Structures are given as structure tokens and as C-alpha cells.
Amino acid sequence: MKRMYFAAAFILSLIFSVAAWADQSATKDECVTKCYEAAALINSKGLTEAVRQIGNSKGPFVWKDSYVFLMNLDGKMLAHPMQPELTQLPHCLLITDPTDKAIFVSFVNTARTVGQGWVEYMWPRPGRKSPSQKVTYVYRVPGKDLFVAAGVYVGGMMY
Q: Which residues contact 24 (CB under 8 A, 6 or more apart)?
């Protein structure tokens, strides 16, 4: 009887742990929604205000384990809440992931050619140094040479 109690308690704690982890992970739908919200902000409040809000690590475009960033079609990072040092570079086009994929080139090409879509690559989770598999939604801001993007980490629990 004690064994069944402990087994049941273990299974319940595992279920609650998985549910708590899922609550902390962004979804693809949330990424799309946040990108649309960021694009609407750019068009309604202007670029300066959008850069301020998107670049704020405690702002409305950072949630769970994800965030929105903002770039132009020349590959210049305009706002990045988790790695603001990227905004100091003339462009990000030479940055590759551990598989040598030019990820920012992929983002720019997606925004420039089709206007929106998903890009797969490797990138560190916020607060981590080692890269994880990630897929990012890229959305070109209507009427602008700008795009916003937000992604989700694929598989594996945050640790």
C-alpha cells in the first residue's frame, strides 16, 4: 500500500512539474501574436518608442522564455532585450550559429522575400551560454523596411 502511495505521489509530482514547465515556455502562437503587437506599436507610436519598449528586458515584449527583437532589412539590430550589445554592431549578418548557419541573413531574407515565416537555428536560452534548438517567427512590419521576430526553444526543459 505504501508503495502505491509513493508511486501515485511521484506520478502526480511529475505531471505537475511538466505542467509548470509548459507554463514557463512560450508557444508559437504567442510569438506570432507578440510580433503583430510589436509591428502595430511601430506603426502607431513610432520607431523610437518601439525601440524603447522592445529593448526593455522587463517590458511587454519579454515573456516566459521568449522575447521580441527588432531589425532592419540591412541586418542592423535595432532592439534586443536580452543581448542589447547586438544593437552596437553595424549589422548582424556575419553572426552564425554553431552549425555555421547565418541566422540573421535567414531572418532578413525571410522578411525581404516572403514577409513572414519561421526560421530554425541554434541560440542560447536567456541566461544561458550553450545553444539550444530554436525556431523563430519573422514578421515584416507593413509598409516599413523593418521586421520583428520572436522564437521558441524546441524540446528539452529549461534548467
A: 64, 65, 158
As a whole number of angstroms, the distance between CA 72 and CA 124 comes to 22
Domain 27-153: CATH class, spelled out: alpha beta
From CA 77, how far away is CA 2, in angstroms rounded? 58
Contact 153, 65 (CB under 8 A): yes
d(CA 142, CA 18) in angstroms, rounded, equals 38
The phi, psi pair for 59, rounded to 5°, reads: -85, -175
Tell me the three state secondary structure of residue 65.
Answer: coil
**CA 35/CA 9 separation, integer angstroms:** 41
Q: In the Cβ-directed half-sphere of 66, how many Cα atoms lie within 13 Å? A: 26
For cell 508503495, name the residue.
3
Angle between helices 28-45 and 47-54 (to 10 degrees): 140
Q: 0.85 cut: is pTM over it?
A: no
114-154 residue pLDDT tens:
999 999 999 888 788 899 999 999 999 999 999 999 999 99
**What is the distance, to the nearest Å, from the Cα of residue 106 to the centroid of all Cα atoms in its chain?**
15
